Amino acid sequence: MVDSKSLQLSNKISFIDKVLTLTCNKPLLIILSIFHCLSMEAQKSFPADPDSAKFVTTDIANFWRAYDQFYQDTSKNPFSEKYIDIGSKGVFGFLKYRIVDKEYLKSIVMNKKGDYDNIRQNSFRIVEKEKQCRSIFYAMKYWYPKAVFPPVYLVVGAFNSGGTANDEGLIIGAEMQKNIDNIPYTIAHELIHFQQRKTDNPTLLVQAIHEGSADFLGELICGYNMNNIAVE
């Protein structure tokens, strides 16, 4: 049996399909219709000015200090005191299902030392993409004037998540960014998720629409779909 929320979303999909059929030469109308039908709902406690969004990178330096200290004496675990406990809201938001806790992070660091070493230099270069990310924020503001722009937290996780969005902002897993040129597209995708209306216990249909719209609208504001590589 289809629940009422799924039925409403299905109806919206049908509406979008009709728009696509009737306005194949009117891409602007299509885009605006999708923005409207996805019921995007900006959170009001964050700035509406793209220039006011903060890019928080302190967690990256904290992680590498803890990392170096750990390898000076592997009998001790500094990842709580030197990284998690002093971390930003981004680190805290990346704990559940990702960093988990100091013991889990320690185990991943030990098992993937080579992988961490390989991305170390790139993790410090991510800040180079801030200007490009702000241009994406301005594109978002153009298409969706009600958009707000939360902090972007750049953290180092456990090689299990490239990024997420929660009530505190956008959180990007720096260790997953082998190519920093992909950073703006990852942030664009998560920015769309941040604007979307949150639902408790979303159905598979709701999840599919959220992800699909984040791909489509993320590509719109940055000019590239972060999943193209996987598709190709």
Describe the structure.
- With 232 residues, this protein is α/β, with parallel strands linked by helices.
- Helix content is 57%, strand content 6%.
- The chain contains twelve helices and four strands; from the N terminus they run ααβαααααααβββααα.
- It has a four-stranded mixed beta sheet.
- The longest helix is centred in the N-terminal third of the chain and has 19 residues.
- The radius of gyration is 19 Å and the shape is globular.
* Structural domain count: 2
Quick one: how many beta strands? 4
Query: Radius of gyration in whole Å, from Cα?
Result: 19 Å
Number of helices: 12
The proportion of residues forming helix, as a percent range, comes to 55-70%
Biggest sheet: strand arrangement: 1-2-4-3
Span between termini: 36 Å
Q: Per the principal axes of the C-alpha atoms, what is the gross shape?
A: globular
Indicate the mean pLDDT.
Answer: 84
The proportion of residues in beta strands is 5-15%
Helix-strand topology string: HHEHHHHHHHEEEHHH
Which consecutive residue ranges, at least 5 long each, have pLDDT under 50? 18-26
Largest sheet: 4 strands, mixed
Indicate the structural class.
Answer: alpha/beta
